[in-house]
Amino acid sequence: MRFKTPKLSLISLLTIINIITRVHSQSTTSANCTAELLTINSQSELDALSSCVTLSGSINFGRDIVNATINGIQTIRGALRVTYGAKVQRLIAPDLSFVGGILQISGALNLTVLSMPSLANVGSLRFEYLPRLRTVEFSSQIDSLGDDTAIQLVVWDTAIESLADIIYRKVESVQIIENPNMVEVDLPIRNITGVFVVRDNGNDTRVSLPYLGTVGYVHMGANVGEVNLPNLTAVETDVRITSDYLRRIELPGLVNIGTEKVATTTRRASLEINRSKNLTAVSFPKLEWIMSDLRINGSEGWTELGGFPVLGSVGDDVVIDGDFENINLPNLRPGDGESRFWINSPQVDCAALLREPIFTEGGWRTNVTCNGGLYDLSPEEETKETKKSLSGGAIGGIAVGAVAAVGGALILFFVCFRRRRVDLPKILELEDGGISKRKVAELPEAKPVAELEDPETSVAPELEGSIPLAELEASSSPNQRRAPEHEVSIPKPPLEQK
Ligand SMILES: *[C@@H]1O[C@H](CO)[C@@H](O)[C@H](O)[C@H]1NC(C)=O
Ligand SMILES: *[C@@H]1O[C@H](CO)[C@@H](O)[C@H](O)[C@H]1NC(C)=O
Ligand SMILES: *[C@@H]1O[C@H](CO)[C@@H](O)[C@H](O)[C@H]1NC(C)=O
Ligand SMILES: *[C@@H]1O[C@H](CO)[C@@H](O)[C@H](O)[C@H]1NC(C)=O
Ligand SMILES: *[C@@H]1O[C@H](CO)[C@@H](O)[C@H](O)[C@H]1NC(C)=O
Ligand SMILES: *[C@@H]1O[C@H](CO)[C@@H](O)[C@H](O)[C@H]1NC(C)=O
Ligand SMILES: *[C@@H]1O[C@H](CO)[C@@H](O)[C@H](O)[C@H]1NC(C)=O
Ligand SMILES: *[C@@H]1O[C@H](CO)[C@@H](O)[C@H](O)[C@H]1NC(C)=O
Ligand SMILES: *[C@@H]1O[C@H](CO)[C@@H](O)[C@H](O)[C@H]1NC(C)=O
Ligand SMILES: *[C@@H]1O[C@H](CO)[C@@H](O)[C@H](O)[C@H]1NC(C)=O
């Protein structure tokens, strides 16, 4: 019996401490082997372990083994990993029913068969860069042990078609990304404490998690065509929706986005709908509050912005860009006084909109920018506003001044801009062991961490975005007539900048 050890260790880590009993025919007694980490490179090494019904330790498959059958072993208390670049084509474990740690298969380019028909409990699952693996045979269905929360369910850049046999109920992080053959993400998960990302899978992917109640962060990205999350009531941080396939998004049970009504410097939670050209309607019938921002970038066919009948509070900014004719946020009332309300939607009649209860009731202290005009809604300013009437020249002067000021502010903003930290719920990407490094080099975007950084990095494109430009454009449009009728302070671009 010969065991290879990891390259890093100089002395063998392998210590088979005890072999309690041998397997007797028909009996349930079992051999119990202990080893910290076994690196397997041949079938004979695997066969040598076949008397170990329980292995207290971990197994790594090295690069050389091509067809591997794990006979005998039922329980692996540690992890089961396949080294990046492994030649393995078939990995079969007929008896294996329990893996306490992670089952990680990354970068096995020729793997076509993964069959573990008895596997019932796995601490977490990570399948990455498996371009030939279409099916996973987990016929007994996989869950975590008892009430444990699985650390991760990551399926990234594989040919896998279905996750039907994975029945985790609680997971920290779920990332289903870049699996072109997957058109259905249907999981019985009830609770995701960290990120939940589905993007760049098969065209028109249907996402259905009928039992999901709470989640840390949601991103329904490219190619998602349908989202069914009927039992989702709360999201701890952001909800991002960015898919051209979506025609309608409905989150019927969602009550709040964020943990508290008011954002703090370290905790933010926004609803962002963007890059969804085919979206024509949204429905958030129970959404009461959003801790940070409501950011909506609409599309041509989406003319009525409604679907938020009970939304009462947005902690920071409301940013609405699009072709909306009507904006109907009937219950929305001022945030904390620091927030901005920014609208760029040429069809909207700003004057009429500003007469809606959303702006006339409740002492809104936030200045509103509507199609380039800045409207001061401070209660004490309201009277002045009606009295004052400036000549066209003065208005022009102010507008030019405002434009210059915006430019100045922008430059300042660029100079001073620093990234803000966004606290996401604890997400464990720790089990990587560096295995995905090569993959990252080959696939520049396939870095799970990027997803975590998303809320930060997405700030940068916004700087290039047309918020300030829109402001400039709008000030030369007819809407200028409704532009400031009093001294204008610099309208800060509605970027996340606290
Ligand atoms: C195997 O050994 C481990 C560690 O010594 C022990 O915790 C476990 O209960 C044993 N299992 C069996 C089936 O004997
Ligand atoms: C692996 O299994 C496949 C299918 O049974 C077989 O065609 C192939 O020759 C095997 N390769 C090795 C190296 O054993
Ligand atoms: C995968 O298989 C091809 C031939 O089918 C072979 O050329 C290549 O080296 C294999 N790659 C690995 C990592 O085993
Ligand atoms: C989800 O899990 C978290 C952390 O374990 C827990 O605090 C929360 O109450 C759970 N939510 C539900 C709906 O079970
Ligand atoms: C998805 O749609 C795009 C554009 O319509 C097409 O080019 C691509 O081949 C489709 N992908 C799949 C996996 O069907
Ligand atoms: C919905 O979630 C609640 C807890 O938030 C749970 O009690 C209820 O059973 C769930 N309903 C379904 C259909 O999963
Ligand atoms: C968007 O809708 C148009 C018109 O219905 C359709 O032709 C197009 O394929 C849709 N795009 C996507 C990505 O679904
Ligand atoms: C939408 O995405 C674009 C990049 O595609 C970005 O520039 C813009 O700021 C985003 N808008 C919102 C409202 O998030
Ligand atoms: C909306 O999206 C367009 C392009 O997709 C982008 O140019 C614009 O800056 C976005 N608007 C906002 C407010 O982010
Ligand atoms: C709103 O504008 C007025 C003057 O137009 C300015 O004094 C005030 O500080 C602005 N309020 C906010 C919250 O930006």
UniProtKB/TrEMBL annotation:
Composition bias type Basic and acidic residues, residue spans: 482-498
Database matches in SUPFAM superfamilies: L domain-like (SSF52058)
Region described as Disordered: spans on this chain: 444-498
Main location: other
UniProtKB keywords: Glycoprotein, Membrane, Signal, Transmembrane, Transmembrane helix
PANTHER family attached to this UniProt entry: RECEPTOR PROTEIN-TYROSINE KINASE, SPORULATION-SPECIFIC PROTEIN-RELATED
Protein name: Receptor L-domain domain-containing protein
Organism: Arthrobotrys musiformis
